[in-house]
Design goal:
two-stranded antiparallel ribbon; mainly alpha; globular; 78 residues; 54% helix
């Protein structure tokens, strides 16, 4: 199963970079709606991408549904 999903992480990261998800979180944690206002991307698309990035451990999500950068994403994806 892992091999059949191997193509997805680079596509998810690329979508996040193209939609400036990492750039919008550089100043601190934000909700999907706050990122939407800053990037102009759709809330539904952002939620899917950002939740996938949490699964890839490139973003963190707190109890208030605010997303933030991990040390790795801050170091390599900004």
């Amino acid at each position: 199963m892992e091999l059949s999903f191997a193509y997805a992480p680079p596509l998810i990261i690329s979508a996040a970079v193209n939609n400036k998800v990492f750039d919008s979180l550089e100043a601190g944690p934000k909700t999907v709606d706050q990122v939407k206002k800053q990037t102009g991307a759709s809330a539904r698309g952002l939620r899917v991408i950002m939740d996938a990035l949490v699964g890839l451990e490139l973003l963190k999500k707190d109890r208030q549904s605010r997303y933030s950068l991990t040390p790795e994403s801050h170091a390599f994806l900004l």
